[in-house]
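Session log. Operator J.P. requested a structure for one protein chain; no other inputs attached. Running the standard single-chain path with token output.
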Amino acid sequence: MPAPGLYNAGGRCVPKIADPGVIQPMLSLAHYNLGDRVATDRVAEVYRATDTALGRTVTIKILRAEVTADAGRRDAILAAARAVLPLSHPNIAALFQVGDEDGKDFLVFEHTPGETLRAAVAGSPLNVRRAVDLGVQLADALADAHGQGFVHGALNPESIVVTQKGRVKVLGFGFPSLPVDEQIQSNPSLTPDDVECMAPERVLGARGDARADIFSLGCVLSEMLTGTQPFGAATAADTAVAILSRTPPPPSHLNARVPDTLDRIVERCLAKSVDTRCDSAATIAAELREVGARLEADENADTRMPLPVRAPRRRRAWLIVFLLLLCLAALAAVAAVWTMR
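Structure written below.
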């Protein structure tokens, strides 16, 4: 018999859906035991779950009812997700499965414990070397994805997790939460976080290519180095206007520890025109590695610099006494000679 308040769907106990627009907590889905709901957005509800077949923790996104009701939107999302199934990189949260069960469409992702990059920054600049190291990992992830024809389209500090070991994991490849044709400057449901790292061409409604991700990478680098969002504003519309019209100051103007080389990298990433923007994440990764190597060399040189050798205090004291006695002896000798005259 099903548990009180539950009904048996496909041989599994799940809660009754009181509101068709909201996904209620479920006990299981396919061979996954669902745990806590950890997030929600305009596209899906996100759960932590246990894969009973492989004995591992995963993250499951279940499409919201209003999304699955729109056949065109549903098919586009699932097709984009299936396309990235082969994508594998140590800095990208893997997509394991695209499935459907009991009328629910879901995606199973690698579980990525840690804190978001936004939480790691927490309004203060990161150590410059750490920021560069994280930037290298992000650029590597984008370079690999772009090399296989995939564009993230929504990279920002909330879609990046930093593990306890300092490893970056990019979330959301193949699962855009914001459709390209959203009216960004007039949609009241959007928040600044939805558009804070969006490339100008995306703000204007274009789909964008790999260079849109590089603009987003520039925004992330800038925030890691300064502790502030380069285009931060109170509303999504104001953020969009800032992206289109404002040129943020170089990171070194807000953080004196940032070298000019990093300023130039961020500037090239944040070029508003796609024709002048850096077009290669692999190039950005290589340049960041060079900066990191120079920073490390400078730190090692500082630690190897010999300190001035100072005589022990006791030795210095005796030396002073000896010199005083020597002076007194010399004065006494002069006085004696003078007296004999």
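Operator note: The domain at 115-302 is CATH 1.10.510.10 (Transferase(Phosphotransferase); domain 1).
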